[in-house]
Amino acid sequence: MHWTDFLVIIASGSFGGLLSSLYIHDGSLILPKIIELELSDGSKGRNYHIGFLSDLVLGAGAGLIAVLPIGLEFPKYIYMAIIAGFGGGSFIAKQAKLTAEDKVSSQDKLPTIVASSVPEPKPSDEVTFELAISDRKGEKMT
Question: CA 92 to CA 54: how far, in whole Å?
């Protein structure tokens, strides 16, 4: 592959990333901006939001990752890079959303641990506890 092929793949992937950004944000282009923050200690800080440029970078990377191992020829690699660029940011965003949803749903699946009451121990006695683990229906698990 010639170096111009790499530039075409990067540009095609970036174009796919731009299309993805427009699709995700309902046709709006989120421009880069600097956000002024007031920190808890009273000082001020800055946060940089790069907007649609993040989708361009993700698209370029996804285009390169998708095309280079396959070794496609011109013009087939352009189509593949655009498709990969479009899906690159969307895939990462969807995975982040699913991960957050899985964290919430996994907390509902945790078993309930119930400690049975034991009589007050004498100072010289050994202390033992009996634990019973049950699922949400109240049935004991083994």
Answer: 12
